[in-house]
């Protein structure tokens, strides 16, 4: 218990608080907070220092080697990576204690909270068959016990009592040892854990309702309010929980307020329809309220006006070649010949589509601008019989060959790979390891190129999500492929990445589909590159990247550094926010240490800590001019990163006199 440590410190009479500080350096200093001293010495509150969890050493993301556990308080009080306990006479003055995890009064506006910092420092049962069993959990702060959970199916006019199970009570009755320590909780009355409720509801009652409402009460008679209320940060709102019920094709569809894995939930649906979530009726239109017309979804026209040519399957197949690639999108036929050189993904991307229906991957990957460009390449419509035959043929050809192949990737069909391992690099970055078809199989991806990944959309299982990635595994690695991916989680204002959040929730053993290679750049070794099918020689690479944009340039850098006979010089400008955001840092620093004049790595951070000794700021004109200020026909600039960074770097490089032919954007 933390009380044991504090007791040995013998606090003075004026001591009132225990301040805690973690080892994690954040933009506004080390994370710190405080709790009252009398809470710490009150063993009934269960405040402790933890170095293990369930018999195992803490994992790094749980605060290894030591963390505080403060039950009954907001999670921010349980400081991870704990390095200091300080006995004080006042609450912590740490930035994060003052400005984070606060519920300000409802009359406080953002301007008021900004102009007056004092706001942040103020501490003032009939059953029938068939039935459906609704289940959930409930908990209260301060160690208070949940005493009642109620369910309503008529917007709160009447309520039904749910059954509650307190898992914590099982420990009060337990006497013995657990994970090497004696357990005795018989004397403790506080409730810090979830309680679990359930209620059997007749299905006809659900059929006659449009929503299931849940509210709970604790032993202090605190009852959840009906409506959410506004506050500056929007935190800790706790109104009745609502699950909408809709009838669809003879089935009942239950919809939660939000979808934790991506966009969705009844709140988003209501907002898109123009509803007001604060109108006291969960955003639904009330009597006398004018209906709001939702914005219509505008489909991009990809059919050229006046083109009425009907094409049959025989003509389509015979006319489609690598030199003259015809392909189908949504039943329309396009000739990609004129775009073979200009396609950002290289000619191979179009050649791989030749003679096939690529509707799914085209519509998923390409922007609205790219779809508008399709008008220029539209040559006709595939007749319905031919379209059905083409789609059936594509499906039959996908992975029907059971003969073991030496190479995994194929450019015109999807191949299954199995998720076998997830490695956590940081809180938002993972390395996903997929097994190929057999242990001695090569991936078959040239250096500098990409593969496409396809996985079902969790929000719409009948649809797929497709994105391109560059693995970080060696090109000669057998049987598996490693892909470094940054997870873009949902935020209150911005939906997360569709594929990254889908991959994050995939369990081990899940199957995805892969296709490739794609890309117009390939490093052949010894300073030779292939760009859009044309070979050229370079003596230096200037690599500019940000975040996970490191992966394609890392493949090229590694190929150069691992070949002692390759004297191509490499300069890498790597931009990130924080020091912990620098990916593959150990490998990069190792190449620089061993490479001498052959390799120069420059890291720059926009929010570097006080201890950061490297460059600061974005990859701007000053930095680019320093390392790429003199255009050279034997030097090639490779760029990969967020769109704004790529756009800004291109403008800078062109202004310095670089030719577009010497710039490559992955």
TrEMBL record:
Species annotation: Aspergillus puulaauensis
Annotated localization: Mitochondrion outer membrane
Entry keywords, A to Z: FAD, Flavoprotein, Heme, Iron, Membrane, Metal-binding, Molybdenum, NAD, Nitrate assimilation, Oxidoreductase
Cofactors, names only: Mo-molybdopterin; FAD; heme
Main location per the UniProt record: mitochondrion
Record has Metal-binding as a keyword: yes
Protein name listed in UniProt: Nitrate reductase [NADPH]
A GO molecular-function annotation: nitrate reductase (NADPH) activity
InterPro entries: CBR-like (IPR001834), Cbr1-like_FAD-bd_dom (IPR008333), Cyt_B5-like_heme/steroid-bd (IPR001199), Cyt_B5-like_heme/steroid_sf (IPR036400), Cyt_B5_heme-BS (IPR018506), FAD-bd_FR_type (IPR017927), Flavoprot_Pyr_Nucl_cyt_Rdtase (IPR001709), FNR_nucleotide-bd (IPR039261)
Reactions catalysed, as given in the entry: nitrite + NADP(+) + H2O = nitrate + NADPH + H(+)
Enzyme Commission number, as recorded: 1.7.1.3
Domain FAD-binding FR-type stretches: 412-524
Membrane topology: Single-pass membrane protein
Binding site for FAD: 467, 469, 484, 486, 489, 498, 551
Functional summary from the UniProt entry: Nitrate reductase is a key enzyme involved in the first step of nitrate assimilation in plants, fungi and bacteria.
Gene Ontology terms: biological process: nitrate assimilation
Entry GO terms, CC: endoplasmic reticulum; mitochondrial outer membrane
Record's subunit section: Homodimer.
């Amino acid at each position: 218990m933390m009380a044991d440590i504090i007791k040995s410190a013998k606090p003075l009479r004026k001591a009132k608080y225990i301040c805690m500080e973690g080892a994690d350096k954040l933009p506004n200093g080390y994370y710190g907070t405080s709790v009252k001293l009398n809470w710490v010495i009150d063993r009934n509150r269960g405040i402790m220092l933890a170095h293990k969890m369930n018999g195992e050493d803490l994992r790094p993301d749980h605060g290894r080697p030591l963390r505080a556990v403060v039950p009954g308080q907001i999670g921010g009080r349980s400081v991870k990576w704990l390095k200091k306990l300080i006995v004080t006479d006042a609450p912590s003055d740490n930035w994060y204690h003052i400005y984070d995890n606060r519920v300000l009064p409802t009359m406080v506006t953002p301007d008021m909270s900004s102009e007056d910092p004092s706001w942040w420092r103020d501490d003032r049962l009939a059953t029938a068959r068939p039935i459906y069993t609704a289940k959930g959990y409930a908990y209260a702060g301060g160690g208070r016990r949940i005493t009642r959970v109620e369910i309503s199916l008529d917007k709160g006019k009447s309520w039904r009592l749910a059954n509650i199970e307190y898992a914590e009570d099982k420990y009060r009755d337990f006497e013995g040892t657990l994970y090497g320590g004696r357990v005795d909780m018989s004397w403790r009355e506080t409730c810090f854990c979830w309680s679990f409720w359930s209620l059997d509801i007749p299905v006809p009652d659900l059929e006659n309702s449009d929503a299931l409402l849940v509210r709970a009460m604790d032993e202090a008679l605190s009852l959840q309010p009906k409506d959410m209320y506004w506050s500056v940060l929007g935190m800790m709102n706790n109104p009745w929980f609502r699950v909408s019920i809709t009838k669809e094709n003879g089935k009942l569809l239950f919809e939660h307020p939000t979808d934790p894995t991506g966009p969705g939930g009844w709140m988003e649906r209501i907002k898109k329809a123009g509803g007001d979530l604060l109108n006291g009726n969960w955003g639904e239109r009330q009597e006398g309220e004018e209906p709001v017309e939702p914005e219509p979804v505008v489909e991009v026209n990809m059919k050229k006006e006046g083109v009425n040519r009907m094409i049959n399957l025989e003509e389509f197949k015979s006319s489609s070649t690598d030199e003259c690639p015809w392909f189908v999108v949504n039943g329309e036929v396009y000739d990609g010949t004129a775009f073979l050189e200009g396609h950002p993904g290289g000619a191979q991307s179009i050649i791989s589509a030749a003679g096939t229906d690529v509707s799914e991957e085209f519509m998923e990957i390409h922007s609205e601008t790219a779809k508008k460009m399709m008008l220029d390449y539209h040559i006709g419509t595939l007749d319905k019989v031919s379209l059905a035959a083409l789609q059936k043929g594509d499906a039959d050809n996908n992975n029907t060959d059971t003969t073991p192949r030496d190479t995994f990737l194929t450019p015109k069909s999807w191949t299954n790979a199995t998720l076998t391992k997830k490695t956590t690099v940081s809180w938002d970055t993972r390395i996903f390891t997929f097994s190929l078809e057999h242990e001695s199989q090569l991936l078959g991806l040239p250096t500098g190129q990409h593969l496409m990944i396809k996985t079902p959309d969790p929000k719409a299982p009948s649809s797929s999500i497709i994105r391109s990635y560059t693995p970080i595994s060696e090109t000669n690695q057998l049987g598996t492929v490693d892909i470094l991916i940054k997870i873009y989680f949902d935020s209150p204002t911005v939906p997360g990445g569709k594929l990254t959040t889908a991959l994050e929730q995939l369990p081990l053993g899940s199957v995805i589909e892969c296709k490739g290679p794609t890309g117009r750049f390939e490093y052949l070794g010894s300073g030779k590159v292939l760009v859009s099918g044309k070979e050229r020689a370079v003596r230096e690479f200037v690599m500019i990247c940000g975040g996970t944009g490191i992966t394609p340039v890392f493949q090229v850098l590694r190929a150069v550094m691992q070949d002692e006979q390759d004297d191509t010089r490499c300069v890498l400008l790597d931009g990130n926010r924080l020091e912990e955001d620098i990916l593959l840092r150990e490998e990069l620093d190792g190449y620089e240490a061993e490479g001498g004049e052959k390799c120069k790595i420059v890291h720059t951070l926009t929010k570097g800590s006080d201890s950061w000794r490297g460059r600061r700021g974005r990859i701007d004109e000053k930095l680019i001019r320093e390392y790429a200020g003199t255009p050279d026909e034997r030097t090639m600039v490779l760029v990969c990163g967020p769109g704004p960074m790529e756009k800004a770097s291109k403008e800078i490089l062109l202004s310095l006199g670089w030719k577009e032919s010497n710039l490559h954007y992955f």
